[in-house]
Amino acid sequence: xxxxxxxxxxxxxxxxxxxxxxxxxxxxxxxxxxxxxxxxxxxxxxxxxxxxxxxxxxxxxxxxxxxxxxxxxxxxxxxxxxxxxxxxxxxxxxxxxxxxxxxxxxxxxxxxxxxxxxxxxxxxxxxxxxxxxxxxxxxxxxxxxxxxxxxxxxxxxxxxxxxxxxxxxxxxxxxxxxxxxxxxxxxxxxxxxxxxxxxxxxxxxxxxxxxxxxxxxxxxxxxxxxxxxxxxxxxxxxxxxxxxxxxxxxxxxxxxxxxxxxxxxxxxxxxxxxxxxxxxxxxxxxxxxxxxxxxxxxxxxxxxxxxxxxxxxxxxxxxxxxxxxxxxxxxxxxxxxxxxxxxxxxxxxxxxxxxxxxxxxxxx
Length: 364
What we know:
The protein is an alpha/beta fold. It has a single domain (22-363), classed as Rossmann fold. It contains 10 helices and 15 strands. It has an 11-stranded mixed beta sheet, sandwiched between helices. The relative contact order is 0.13. Mean pLDDT is 92; it is low at 1-29. InterPro entries: AB_hydrolase_fold (IPR029058), TAT_signal (IPR006311). This is Alpha/beta hydrolase family protein. GO terms for molecular function: hydrolase activity. Keywords: Hydrolase, Lipid degradation, Lipid metabolism.
């Protein structure tokens, strides 16, 4: 690991977040439109720090971010959802113009000092993204958790991620079969992070209360790591395909939020369900597609308006689940789950169908 020390979490220079003068572009007459992220609902302002990590044993260089409740956000600028150079690569990879839009701004304030809402250390949630994706893709959920008192660590899985390093290198997902990563490789990246929580958190993080969630391949990685590492006390899979399968039984809580990789359609997902011996829940939002539990559900409709995408094309990207309702689901369900299993706060939302969420089915 590189550049980390045991200094205070609130003052450690863990890595670089540049204060990009994004407002200047907004004032240009022909500037692209800036996308917007929905605001979190919790009572705490949010701080964030970028981390540059080196796993020398595995020859892996990683970028990560930690999000947390902040004590004072004055003089700490908000950070963009994604750096400009990385966003350009992401847009081009999806078939859009590189300068189609500007990155939304997040609710995270760069380097703001950490707040402990109580005398206890902060419960931790780690996030693993999907294949050919990036660590920002569930910022809606990440910000929601941080605004309610969690420390959330998001990780770019190098060679399967769009990522920029502090020296300016921009990497995109590799097409080299020799660099192909599976769920266990993702899980190993997260395990490396867990092994260095003291360096990352400087005593502010609670290693006895760790949860994990992931989307797609990251959802599968969440399950794989839960089987391998008991430090993960509870997990959420956002439409993980669950291949390859893991043998054995899992005795800790798992919530599956499915869309396309359902138990009915995917034998691997059904097999995993039968291996769960602890608390378990499978929910599914009507009209959801694979991306519906990510930020894309909120951002793609905005992009569609800018570039003139047809309604049919947009539905191909995000399905028929209303974007506003998707955001509410992304905020409510993971928070209720981790509150119950990391903080022992009961939630009626997890007990069965809720009139507040008529589009969410609770699968037996």
